[in-house]
């Protein structure tokens, strides 16, 4: 999974290199036998995968298959019962959870901007209160993040004054500002009007091109085809199939994968 | 979206502009009332309880109207029915002048009582708020133990009469013995302190419930998002949930403030001569019940309307686009 085969300019670049100061085989994220249940209901039944630096993993699967739950286990927004998750070789259970979450950013389906703060303040809050930056430094940094997602002119706007797509781009800037090593996207475009999806995906593509390591739950197959280094099909708490996007799209090994992708593609082409 | 809102806002402010006279008049009367009240308080602290304006002027007016009316009544002739009617109006004027004369004479004493009403209300609501915020946070975000403790406090204080609580504090626990050393000019008796404690602990319970409802209306996803950037739960509540929840709580909180203005009269039962008690004392001295209770009603109305206006201003002042009830309806 460590090689990009997506036809972009940097295909020859191995995703994990010695310049990271680690051995080439050492993944940024390693998930082993992850198990999670809510009471009697088992949601995740043994998930295993590695994610290398600069890789973009797209996770697809039917509703209730455990995609969001898996993301939330990675930054411990929800606790899991079995298995291990390691970030950069260290078990997340051994880390301070606030420190873990600073290193692993998250973007939500329902965006969750802080409604009483401007776009700029949404980004500076973490810088000021978590990283203890001065007001001026935090604002400079936040401004540069807003520029990165193309929203510098809206810095002084409150969430209610922004469109859905703009809000989600602020949500991405908020996560980026903490300089995360890994970014989790939990269906970032599912709550958006169709015409606003593009601007968010564009920002995400730029991030992927810039080498950000990303774990993305989405059903935007265009994005998966274009930006994913690997595609994972999750169903009933297990990985059904995982591989380079082309392989899953063009010659999936399992019928379930084929059926699901066929349905998704039809839907997204209709839209 | 924001365009729609600003047109709505525009329409509202245009509607407001059509009755500027009523609004300015109300504000002017309010300003006059508070100027008088503050000057009065200062005068009382400086030792003067004399009315600023001689009551004799209005008394003379009342007598004059009354005598004229009597003369008109006794005049016969063709115009007698008309004169009788005018006499009736004159008697009404006489009663009004008598009411004003009465008011001028006793307003200084009522103002003194109103001072304690204001002190009890303001301290009760503010100290109560300091207790209510942690109570409501514990109720919404606490574990089983803190949640239970908070709930227990709230239900105990809301479930028993305020008067009984004041009696327990004043007679049962004899709380005033601890405050004997803290009486000075503006706080004339230790009982005032006991009343402040009573209103604070009682109001905290009610305020906690108003704030709890407000905190619960802040989307939980925002706290999740706060934790996702590395803020602790407590920091998330402090920086994300509370600033929004407290804004949502303002209308309910205003309600509590208005209740407290009137409930503070219960302090009379533990010897605090606040507004209502000062009026009752005058009534039992003069037997002018209608006059004095009429004046008290006007006084409470002035205090309550002032509180409403002030909180409306605060609500506008801290309003944020898209947050709370002011926008979009």
Unreliable stretches of chain A: 1-23
Total domains of chain A, how many? Answer: 1
CATH architecture of the domain at 116-317 in chain B: Orthogonal Bundle
What structural class do you assign from the helix and strand content of chain B? mainly alpha
Work out the oligomeric state of the chains in this entry: heterodimer
Largest beta sheet: strand ordering of chain A: 6-7-8-3-9-10
Number of strands of chain B: 0
Approximate helicity band of chain A: 25-40%
Morphology of chain B: elongated
Query: In the CATH hierarchy, what is the class of the domain at 116-317 in chain B?
Result: Mainly Alpha
- Report the principal-axis shape of chain A: globular
Low-confidence sequence ranges of chain B: none
CATH superfamily grouping of chain A: P-loop containing nucleotide triphosphate hydrolases
The gyration radius over C-alpha positions of chain B equals 26 Å
CATH topology of the domain at 116-317 in chain B: MetI-like fold
Biased composition (Basic and acidic residues) (chain A): 1-11
Membrane topology (chain A): Peripheral membrane protein
Subcellular location (chain A): Cell membrane
GO molecular function, one term (chain A): ATP hydrolysis activity
Strand and helix layout:
The complex is a heterodimer of chains A (271) and B (329).
Chain A: E1 29-38, E2 41-51, E3 56-60, H1 67-74, E4 82-87, E5 90-91, H2 97-103, E6 104-107, H3 119-129, H4 135-148, H5 164-177, E7 182-186, H6 194-209, E8 213-217, H7 221-227, E9 230-235, E10 238-243, H8 245-250, H9 255-270
Parallel strand pairs in A: 3-8, 3-9, 6-7, 7-8
Antiparallel strand pairs in A: 1-2, 1-4, 4-5, 9-10
Chain B: H1 2-17, H2 20-45, H3 55-74, H4 80-141, H5 144-159, H6 162-172, H7 190-216, H8 220-228, H9 233-263, H10 275-286, H11 289-317
Helix pairs in contact in B: 2-4, 3-4, 4-5, 4-7, 4-9, 4-10, 4-11, 5-7, 6-7, 7-9, 8-9, 9-11, 10-11
């Amino acid at each position: 999974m460590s090689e990009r085969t997506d036809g972009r300019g940097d295909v020859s670049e191995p995703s994990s290199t010695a310049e990271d100061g680690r051995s080439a085989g050492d993944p940024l994220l390693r998930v082993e036998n992850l198990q999670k249940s809510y009471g009697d209901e088992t949601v995740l039944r043994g998930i295993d995968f590695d994610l290398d630096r600069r890789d973009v993993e797209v996770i697809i699967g039917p509703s209730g298959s455990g995609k969001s739950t898996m993301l939330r286990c990675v930054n411990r927004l929800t606790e899991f019962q079995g298995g291990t998750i390691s970030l950069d070789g260290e078990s997340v259970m051994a880390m301070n959870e606030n420190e873990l979450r600073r290193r692993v950013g998250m973007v939500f389906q329902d965006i969750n901007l802080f409604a009483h703060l401007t776009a700029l303040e949404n980004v500076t809050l973490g810088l000021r209160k978590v990283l203890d930056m001065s007001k001026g430094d935090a604002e400079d940094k936040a401004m540069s993040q807003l520029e990165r997602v193309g929203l510098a002119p809206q810095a002084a706007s409150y969430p209610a004054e922004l469109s859905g797509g703009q809000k989600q781009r602020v949500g991405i800037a908020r996560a980026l500002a903490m300089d995360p090593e890994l970014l989790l996207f939990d269906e970032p475009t599912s709550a958006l009007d169709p015409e606003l999806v593009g601007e968010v995906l564009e920002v995400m593509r730029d991030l992927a091109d810039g080498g950000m390591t990303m774990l993305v739950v989405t059903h935007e197959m265009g994005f998966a085809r274009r930006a994913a280094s690997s595609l994972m099909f999750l169903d009933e708490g297990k990985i059904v199939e995982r591989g380079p996007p082309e392989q899953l799209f063009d010659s999936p090994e399992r019928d379930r994968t084929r059926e699901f992708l066929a349905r998704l593609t039809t839907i997204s082409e209709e839209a | 979206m924001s365009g729609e809102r600003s047109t709505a806002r525009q329409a509202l402010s245009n509607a407001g502009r059509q009755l500027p006279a009523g609004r300015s008049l109300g504000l002017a009367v309010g300003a006059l009332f508070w100027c008088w009240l503050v000057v009065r308080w200062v005068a009382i602290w400086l030792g003067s309880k004399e009315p600023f304006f001689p009551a004799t002027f209005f008394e003379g007016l009342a007598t004059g109207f009354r005598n004229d009316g009597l003369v008109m009544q006794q005049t016969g002739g063709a115009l007698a029915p008309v004169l009788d009617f005018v006499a009736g109006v004159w008697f009404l004027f006489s009663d009004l002048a008598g009411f004003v004369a009465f008011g001028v004479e006793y307003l200084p004493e009522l103002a003194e009582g109103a001072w304690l009403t204001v002190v009890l209300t303001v301290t009760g609501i503010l100290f109560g708020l300091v207790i209510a915020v942690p109570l409501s946070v514990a109720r919404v975000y606490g574990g089983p133990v803190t949640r239970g403790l908070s709930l227990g406090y709230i239900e105990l204080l809301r479930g028993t009469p305020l008067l009984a609580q004041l009696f327990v504090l004043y007679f049962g626990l004899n709380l005033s013995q601890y405050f004997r050393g803290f009486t000075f000019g503006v706080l004339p008796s230790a009982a005032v302190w006991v009343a402040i404690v009573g209103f604070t602990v009682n109001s905290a319970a009610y305020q906690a419930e108003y704030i709890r409802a407000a905190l619960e209306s802040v989307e939980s996803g925002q706290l999740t998002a706060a934790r996702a950037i590395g803020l602790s739960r407590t920091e998330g509540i402090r920086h994300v949930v509370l600033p929004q929840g407290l804004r949502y709580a303002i209308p309910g909180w205003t309600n509590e403030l208005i209740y407290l203005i009137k409930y503070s009269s219960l302090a009379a039962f533990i010897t605090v001569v606040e507004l209502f008690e000062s009026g009752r004392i005058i009534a039992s001295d003069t037997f002018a019940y209608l006059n004095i209770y009429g004046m008290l009603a006007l006084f409470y109305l002035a205090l309550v309307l002032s509180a409403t206006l002030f909180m409306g201003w605060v609500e506008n002042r801290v309003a944020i686009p898209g947050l709370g009830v002011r926008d979009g309806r």
